[in-house]
Amino acid sequence: MIVTCNRIPVNPEHAEAFEERFADRSALVDGMPGFISFQLLRPKKSGDPYVVMTFWESEAYFKAWTQSDEFKEGHARSGSLPPETFSGHPKLEMFDVIQSTAEINRVSEA
User: Fold this and answer.
1) Which of 51, 69, 70, 78 could disulfide-link 41, Cβ–Cβ 3.0 to 4.6 Å?
2) Domain range for residue 100?
3) What is the C-alpha to C-alpha distance for residues 52 and 43, in angstroms, rounded to an integer?
4) What percent of the residues of the chain are helix, what percent strand, and what percent coil, each to the nearest 5?
5) Are 2 and 95 in contact (CB under 8 A)?
6) What is the value of pTM for the model shown?
């Protein structure tokens, strides 16, 4: 299993619009093959980035998502936010899960 973390710096005065727009597109990933789970994390400290976490059965499934029509549709929606929404560029990180107590890990191993 892999986890992706997309760290997205959002100006605090645009946080509400960002969250609303993200809610509109998050369901697009739900039906993708290999998709396990999604989480949008709101920073507790002003100035820290939002974190979009997705859990996948493999990197190949994640890459297939990034090349899908659903991915393009979701990112086109977020592209309608004004540039001042963001205080910097997003940073994508990818991790292999090597230990977990989470139920999602046991499901993906079955």
Assistant:
1) 51
2) 2-109
3) 11
4) 40, 25, 30
5) yes
6) 0.83
Beta strands in 13-101 (DSSP E): 35-41, 50-56, 91-96
What is the CATH number for 43? 3.30.70.100
Higher local confidence (pLDDT), 108 or 89: 89
pLDDT over threshold 90, residue 72: no
Provide the domain count of the chain: 1
Cβ pair 36, 56 in contact under 8 A: yes
pLDDT exceeds 90 at position 102: no
- Measured CA to CA, the distance from residue 59 to residue 20 in angstroms comes to 28
Residue labelled with tokens 């509400």: 16
Residue 85 pLDDT greater than 60, yes or no: yes
Per DSSP, 81 falls in state: S
